[in-house]
Specification:
The protein is α+β, with helices and mostly antiparallel strands and 185 residues long. 56% of the residues lie in helices and 16% in strands. The chain contains four helices and six strands; from the N terminus they run αββββαββαα. It has a four-stranded antiparallel beta sheet with strand order 3-4-6-5, covered by helices on one side. Strands 1-2 form a two-stranded antiparallel ribbon. Helix 1 (6-25) packs antiparallel against helix 3 (107-144) and helix 1 (6-25) runs parallel beside helix 4. The radius of gyration is 22 Å and the shape is elongated. The termini are far apart. 27% of the residues are buried.
């Protein structure tokens, strides 16, 4: 049975790009974005839980996030979780709600965030290239086992390379858009 599976390779490359987009959405640009709090975990009921499982996060104003805690007894735990996440946000308690004003980004912080976006992009490209390598190795194994001919292998290798190129280009475009957003806000 042939080891090469084009659909699997394409799925894995798309997964790398989607993961990158998720990472980039968590980078702060100056505007309030609820995904900024996605990495926050809170210790409640004796377990670590993602913030979105104990509270509702919204962005009522362009420079403010609001965290509506469902159980008032968890308010302090949520505040500690946000502080521990080291996002540079200072929660203010307002009844059963936490208000998180977003401070202006300094030029230095913007450059750091742009650099971090580039690092995320590099990691995604490495993942895509690793998938390409796996596909190429599978094709060579199939050829050795006589499952496919040399011409089929070369044709399939070209397809894998085209997939790789398109996903790398998509990665570059996502990173460039995020860097532009960070530096111009």
């Amino acid at each position: 049975m042939a080891k090469y599976d084009k659909a699997d390779i394409e799925r894995r490359m798309k997964g790398a790009v989607e993961s990158l987009k998720g990472d980039l959405s968590g980078l702060r640009t100056g505007r309030a974005n609820t995904s900024l709090l996605d990495p926050v975990v809170v210790e409640v009921y004796g377990a670590m839980m993602p913030l979105n499982q104990v509270a509702t996060v919204s962005a009522p104003e362009p420079r403010m996030l609001s965290v509506q805690v469902w159980d008032k007894s968890n308010l302090i735990a949520v505040e500690k979780g946000i502080a521990k996440a080291n996002l540079g946000l200072n929660p203010m308690i307002d009844g059963q709600t936490l208000r998180l004003p977003l401070p202006d980004l300094t030029e230095e912080r913007r450059k750091d965030l742009a650099k971090l976006a580039g690092e995320y992009g590099e990691k995604a490209k490495i993942a895509i290239r690793n998938v390409r390598r796996d596909g190429m190795e599978a094709l060579k194994e199939d050829e050795k086992k006589k499952d496919i001919s040399e011409d089929d292998r070369k044709r399939s290798e070209d397809e894998v390379q085209k997939l790789t190129d398109s996903h790398v280009a998509e990665t570059d475009a996502a990173v460039a858009a995020k860097v532009k957003e960070i530096l111009t806000q």
